Each structure stands twice: as C-alpha cells, then as structure tokens.
Automatic annotation (TrEMBL):
Keyword rRNA-binding (UniProt): no
Source lineage: Eukaryota, Metazoa, Ecdysozoa, Nematoda, Chromadorea
Protein name: Acyl_transf_3 domain-containing protein
Organism: Caenorhabditis tropicalis
GO biological process: polysaccharide biosynthetic process
Keywords: Membrane, Transmembrane, Transmembrane helix
Length: 288
C-alpha cells in the first residue's frame, strides 16, 4: 500500500490516486468477487434453507464492503463466530481495509508537503489520534470502525518507510599515496576483524528478537485467560511491525515455508470461513 503511493509520489495527485486504486483493486477484487460468487452458488445448492435469508443480506454487505457496520443483536459478530451461520462474517476485516483505502491517499498526500524530518512525527500524530479514539470507544466500535483501526495501518506504513529509508550518499575524495599506504596498513593490522565483530554483535539482538517476539505472540494466542485488547492489540501490531522490519535475510522469518504461507494467506482468509460455516451447519459442529 505505502509502496504503491511512494512509487507514484512524483506524479500528479489524480495519477497517484488512480494508480493506487487500480493496483490495489486489481489485486483484491478478482479473487474476492469470485469467492463471493461461489459462496452464493453454494449457499443455494448445498447449505440448509435456514441459512439462506441471513446470508443474502450478508452477501450484499460484503459486496458493498460494509460488513463491519454496526450489527444488530441477531447479527452480532461474536455470535456469528460461535454458531457459524454467516458465511460472510469474516469479510469485516477486508471492509475495514477497503474503507481505509479511501482515506490513505489523502493521509499520504499531506505527508508529501511535510519536511522529511517531520514525517514520522506526522504519522505518529495520526496514529495517536486513532488510538485514542480506539481506546475510548465502546468495544464494538473499536473492533469495527475504520477510524479506530487507522493506527494499525499507520504502523505498517512507518515500517515500510523505515525499511526503505535511503542512506545518504557517501562523499568521496581522492587519497594521496601516503594516506593509501596508511589505509592498507590499518587493514593488515586487523581493522577488518573489529568490523566483523561489530557486525556480529549487531546481528545477535536481531536474532534474539526473531526468537522472542514470535514466542510471545504464540503465548498470547494460547493464553488460557482473556487479556485486555487495549494492551494485546497494540503489542501484537507493533511486534508484527518489528518482525517485518527485521525479516529480510533472517533465516527464521524468511523461511520458505513461512513465506509461502504469507503469499497464500489472502486466499486462505477468503475461503476458510465459508468452509467452516458449511461444516458447522451441516454437521452441527460434531467432531469426527
């Protein structure tokens, strides 16, 4: 998302916005609409009649990307999760994402007129306002509202900017013969060993973080008691951002299997819930 905006940064405002939306929607919409089509066909062909009426309404909400709208008592998200009758329940998160896409170009355009050294401060302010709204809202609003989720998207944008910060171009000057000889002498005396030791010391914390953070994330997921979302959600978001930042060339985080799971995660996200809902409705949740 931020990558697309940065690539079009030097183009006109209209070109930037149109390029951003065309790229994002080309990636998201084809598979999304295909899954909804197959889900609706399956709804009429294979699902019990009792599931049809509710899912007709949910399909419309999914197509309009408003699945995250406030639910009635009958439609409550957590109730849908527990009984598995709404095959489009999971589209709430994509609805939040699409709604954010209508905001992010303008958030980004404002950042382009801000001096480079103040950009992180600007994104920090935007994220802080969103987080204050999130932490002060009712749980149902904090969960579904795009404005209560902006801070999470902003963290992702900051991670991208940090990972792609261009180092200042080094300045060069010609060495005379004496300076060149002195440089060679220093190298021969083992300066390279000190550099090597320094680079190893820098890699050790990164490797430690790559072990500790995933372990903590797994621990939070498997924790037997409810933890307050005001603490866990920021921690998980920031921890994920840090892992993304240090993932390049990391043996664990750049593992081919994990990378493959990441590549297909969008497809898994789209198809997993309709399959589960069908199993829950037809098998009444019985375990084999």
């Amino acid at each position: 998302m931020c990558m697309l905006l940065k690539r079009a940064e030097n183009q006109s405002t209209c070109s930037l916005i149109s390029l951003f939306y065309s790229k994002r929607f080309k990636r998201i919409l084809p598979l999304y609409l295909l899954v909804i089509l197959y889900s609706i066909i399956s709804l009429y062909c294979f699902f019990p009649d009792t599931a049809v009426e509710n899912n007709q309404k949910s399909a419309v909400h999914a197509l309009l990307f408003v699945s995250n709208r406030p639910k009635t008592n009958e439609e409550n998200y957590f109730e849908m999760l527990s009984i598995g009758v709404d095959i489009f329940t999971h589209t709430w998160s994509l609805s939040v994402e699409i709604q954010f896409y209508f905001l992010v170009p303008f958030i980004f355009l404002v950042s382009t007129i801000i001096p480079e050294k103040f950009k992180y401060f600007y994104y920090g302010i935007v994220g802080s306002i969103s987080f204050i709204y999130y932490s002060s809202s009712l749980s149902i609003v904090a969960f579904n509202s795009v404005f209560a989720r902006i801070w999470q998207f902003v963290i992702g944008m900051i991670v991208y900017l940090l990972a792609n910060t261009e180092a200042p171009e080094p300045s060069y000057q010609k060495l005379n013969v004496e300076e060149l000889n002195e440089t060679v002498k220093l190298l021969e005396e083992g300066v390279t060993e000190e550099v090597s030791e320094s680079s190893v010391q820098k890699r050790i914390p990164v490797k430690l973080i790559s072990y500790v953070l995933p372990s903590l994330l797994i621990l939070i997921t498997a924790f037997p008691f409810n933890l307050t979302s005001v603490v866990t959600r920021p921690f998980v978001t920031i921890a994920t951002g840090i892992l993304m930042l240090i993932s390049e060339d990391n043996v664990i985080l750049s593992n081919r299997f994990l990378t493959y799971i990441g590549d297909i995660s969008y497809s898994l996200y789209l198809i997993h819930w309709p399959i589960y809902a069908y199993w829950k409705l037809t098998c009444e949740g019985d375990k084999y």
